[in-house]
Amino acid sequence: MAQRKTLYVLLTVLSVLAIAFAISFWVCNRAMKAEVHTRYVGIMNVASEKIAKTARGMEMNAMNVFDEVEKHLDSPASVIAALESKTSLNPEVRGYFAAFEPDYFPQEGTWFEPYVVHVDSSAFELRQVGSARHNYHKSDWYIRAKKSNESFWSDPYYYYDGTNISGHYTTFVKPVFDKTGQLACVCGADMTFEWLAKELQRIDEESKNNSLLNKFLTYDTDFYTVVINSDGSCIAHPEGKSVSMTEEFLKRDLEQKKSGTVDMEVNGVQATVYYGPIDHVDWSVAVVVTKQAVQGPLIKLGIIFLLTAIIGLVVVGLVCRRIGNVETV
Asked: How far apart are CA 2 and CA 328, in angstroms?
């Protein structure tokens, strides 16, 4: 009889504990998932804002150059002098150019595109790059500038001429009009993606070392930030950690500047990717978090609950056995 009573008590306690632990684990699991989601969405938003701020600063510097060109459209020499006068504004700019309409300066012919290029850490060099071979009038950025009459960032591209300026670029472009309202030229500031890679590294280090952000963190973080073009290709990333987001639904989100989350395999590792648009440019920022980093806290939580449940059952069993022994005596 005593043994039956002990078993009944034990089963009752087991049922209560199981229900209590199941509810507690469900609540904690939801809370921790929300915390992880909020954390990495926050990091993504901060990265987006910082990159947008840097891009705006580069735009302002480039606009100063373009405004100087607009003030000096009276001769080719004055245009070149205007380009050269502002070359030190931004060390991240590889070169400034002014691509003119055909025969805007009759003496310069159909293709007049003076380009002041940064050849090393301190020196700039003037080149005339317009030609029949380099017919910039048919370039996408030139056609878009003429149609839109607005400034914009070009799609990333790779430029190669066999010199030290070959590399991956993006260009901030603006159409420039003369006093009569006629399109004179399309100005541009060429920038490599080195500045963007440096910015991503700085943002990641700040997030990982932020004492306020990590004050109550109980698990290791394993994430990195990349920049994605609207076609899903990765244009800036830590070394060896490129990400491709070419699935159709992801490309639609990127083109429509939507935010989202997707589980996918990245460089052979299962990961969760948080992505969202960057203002002023047609790019998105993405924070890549390994599944291990996301699920690690949940696994630890489950182990803690399981161990607590086992200890609780052992204690209840010992107490019931002691009560049964007392009743038998």
From this structure: 7
β-strand pairing of 167-177 with 183-192: antiparallel
Cα separation of 199 and 163, whole Å? 26
Q: Are the C-beta atoms of residues 271 and 206 closer than 8 Å to each other?
A: no
Enter the tokens of residue 310: 């086992």
pLDDT band at 121 (very low <50, low <70, confident <90, very high): low
Q: Positive or negative, the Cα torsion across 60, 63, 64, 67?
A: negative
Distance (Å, whole) CA 123 – CA 91: 11
The encoded tokens of residue 314 equal 């052992």
Q: Which amino acid is at 261?
A: T
- How much is the pLDDT for 28? 72
Q: How many CB atoms lie within 10 A of CB 105?
A: 17
The 8 Å CB, 24+ separation contacts for 152-155 are 153/55, 153/280, 153/281, 153/282, 154/188, 155/229, 155/230, 155/282
Rounded CA gap, 31 and 33, in Å?
Answer: 5
- The CA radius of gyration of the chain, in Å to the nearest whole number, is 31
